[in-house]
Design brief:
This protein is α/β, with parallel strands linked by helices. It has helices at about 25-35, 45-50, 80-90, 105-110; strands spanning about 1-10, 15, 40-45, 60-65, 75-80, 100, 120-125, 130-135, 145-150, 160-170. An eight-stranded mixed beta sheet has the order 5-4-3-6-1-7-10-9, sandwiched between helices. The radius of gyration is 16 Å and the shape is globular. The structure holds NADP nicotinamide-adenine-dinucleotide phosphate. NADP nicotinamide-adenine-dinucleotide phosphate binds next to strand 1, strand 2, strand 3, helix 2 and helix 4.
Length: about 170
């Protein structure tokens, strides 16, 4: 199963200067719970925005066109084009195949727009400053919403947010 997972604000903003525009611990917890034990893929800019910190308990794929790019961690695989990722993923043993989560940024949602079977979209009830928006090239009308859960703001999370899950229309 290949899924997209991201958080956007009320205007579709997803990034600011290489990092997330907000700090919402409960939203990060949702990301962790959803992706734990699976494969997460991110663009080189997102990886470097995290100071190359590798998230534990998951295989990480970093995408770059730079053939010389190296990451000194065996939990990280580096790929140079989406086709190579999809070939690698389809070659996994079906019994042990993990889910592949495309986690951003915007360039990754474009690169894999025709591969998503599910989407995990968090909508944050706020407006932030930033420079990177969720791409319009990913046609949300191809997906049907199957669940929607709202988390209210609380002492640790300044904004309410809603996690929506979508499945591709067949
Ligand atoms: N809100 C969220 O859920 C969320 C999630 C993830 C990221 N973000 C934010 O999004 C922003 C970054 O997004 P972004 O779109 O600018 O960058 P990005 O998708 O993280 O990374 C872009 C890089 O990926 C590589 N790349 C792109 N297309 C490729 C392809 N077809 N084949 C191989 N490599 C490819 C290139 O690396 P090279 O230049 O090395 O060739 C490109 O510069 C950051 O602010 C980040 O915090 C937000």
């Amino acid at each position: 199963m290949i899924a997209g997972i991201w958080a956007e604000d009320a205007q579709g903003l997803i990034g600011s200067n290489g990092i997330l525009p907000w700090f919402l611990p409960s939203e990060l917890q949702h990301f962790k719970q959803t992706t734990m034990g699976q494969v997460i893929l991110m663009g080189r800019k997102t990886f470097e925005g995290m100071h190359k910190r590798v998230l534990p308990g998951r295989t990480t794929i970093v995408m770059t066109r730079d053939e010389t790019y190296k990451v000194a961690d065996e939990a990280v695989l580096v790929f140079h084009n989406p086709e190579a990722v999809l070939n690698w993923y389809q070659g996994q043993e079906p019994e042990s195949a993990k889910d592949l989560y495309i986690t951003g940024g915007a360039e990754m949602f474009i690169a894999f727009k025709d591969s998503f079977e599910q989407l995990y979209r968090t909508i944050i009830a706020g407006e932030f400053e930033g420079d990177t928006y969720f791409p319009k090239a990913l046609e949300m009308t191809n997906f049907k919403e199957v669940s929607s859960v709202t988390h209210p703001a609380d002492e640790k999370n300044d904004y309410a947010f809603t996690v929506k899950r979508y499945e591709i229309k067949r």
